[in-house]
Description:
By secondary structure, the chain is of the alpha/beta class. It contains 20 helices and 21 strands. The chain has a nine-stranded mixed sheet, with helices on both faces. Helix 3 (70-84) runs antiparallel to helix 4, helix 11 (265-293) crosses helix 12 (308-317) and helix 15 crosses helix 19.
Amino acid sequence: MVNILGISAFYHDSAAALVVDGDIRAAAQEERFTRKKHDAGFPEHAMQYCLKEAGLAVDDLDYVIFYDKPFLKFERILETYVTFVPKGFRSFMKALPLWLKEKMWVHDLLQKRLGFHGELYYTEHHQSHADSAFYPSPYQQAAIVTMDGVGEWATASIAKGDGNRVELLKELSFPHSLGLIYSAFTYYIGFRVNSGEYKLMGLAPYGEPLYVDLIKDKLIHIREDGSFQLNMAYFNYCHGLTMTSKKFHRLFGMEPRKPESKIQQKHMDIARSIQAVTEEVMLKMAGHAHALTGYNNLVLAGGCALNCVGNGRILREGPFENVWIQPAAGDAGGALGAALFMWYHLLQNPRDPQGGRDLQKASLLGPRFSDQEIETFLEENNIPYQRLDDDALYPQVAGLLKDHKVVGWFQGRMEFGPRALGCRSILGDPRSPEMQRKINLKIKFRESFRPFAPSVLQERAGDYFTLDRESPYMLLVAPVKPSIRKSLSQEQEKLFGIQKLQVSRSTVPAITHVDYSARVQTVKEEDNPRYYRLIKAFEEQTGCGVVVNTSFNVRGEPIVCTYADAYKCFMRTHMDYLVLENFLIDKTQQAESQVPLDWQQEFEPD
């Protein structure tokens, strides 16, 4: 038995993943254990979890591999500083202590924190992304596209995967980066970099693409193969402490929006414009990958692969028959890619995908908890509850959803990646016109424009969405079918910006975005049987095979990991009910003094 531990750390979304004889046994982000969102620290807790899940000790590890090459990355930072000297001295001096303290000494940290004294291996950042996309995919052959901010030097790559081999074909190098230009606009619109990019994507449909030509004329030159060159005079990320320069601000006629200030129509138009440019690059890069490889399958990874609107367009408009996206597409997934690189590439083990199913195990790779553990917690804390067997639980919870109650749903293994997939979720009735606003403002404590995703029974997906395949990881945006859309009046058609939120656009308005799209999760019984049975029970009571699914967390906090995290989040919001495995907890029966409901005042903006 060969035990391989993969690690990603130090930039954002640190994680660990364990592969045993090629089988993905466990994977988790460090943030879930430390409760620090996007935790970039050394993933000590995630590593300990992976070992515990597999019943292994540190001495049982045969290989430990890190997801990038620190010295090569430090070389890039030094070379960038020399290029811009004397500019960038402040940012360089801010970064230097972290490099000298820990970022270059991963092996020392492994010895001190984990007690591992074996050899540590390294792979390159975009190699890890490519491997995380291809090796768990269901394809024997596939084109591979990776896109993110920056690794060592690479910011995007095209590769091809065949059997157990991944061959790099092309790379785009720093500072020309799709992830960084998108992050620059994220910063400019007033959201946090490496955290708020999905807000920018969600804001885009409220605007018009008025600035596309300006962006393409002044900021980015896009070639037909999807490669591009940025005009670095408009950006500050090479040498400054901000993403955009004063020249950038003059170009758009205003300073960066201050976080938490009012979002104006111009911000929405800018968001729509950079989203359109991003989609153009993604489509052209995917097209070039097809031309280079001739393969009909495409796999994606890197932070830009979380742009599910762009992914949906690649699927609908691109040349590929099939597209598979790594669920943990960002840096967290690099830990898994590194471990699989060791198993397939370095150890040269054969790879033979079976039956068209991926090897990601529905990305349910995190901790799980028994009914006994949960009941002990409830009893020790004098928490009123009702224990139900499965046959009683599903129809009762479905009835609560039908009555427009908001339910925290905690069961099974925690998801690996940024999406809640039915194990650490907050659920609602998609038919309710008020559900989106209710969950955003009273449960998530976040901006009202943020859309919610639908979880739909796989066999019913075609009744609601223009989608002809599975989307188990909530990484594809698809149009809502015309047959369930509602006609708008002339007055409603004239609404613009946030005013569009006032309109109910389909028979499932809570999951229909203002552009008639939805970020779809299809649910199969074999992947997540308990979640499937709940949605099935909801369908039996309502005729609707869809539920609202958003991650079980509040603004500024990671998705919950443990039952204690879930109960705390439940009590600090206006959720109505909480399900912890087979235990149903009613908010009205809880002591008000246990946790105050005005907890949202403590949150940091994300």
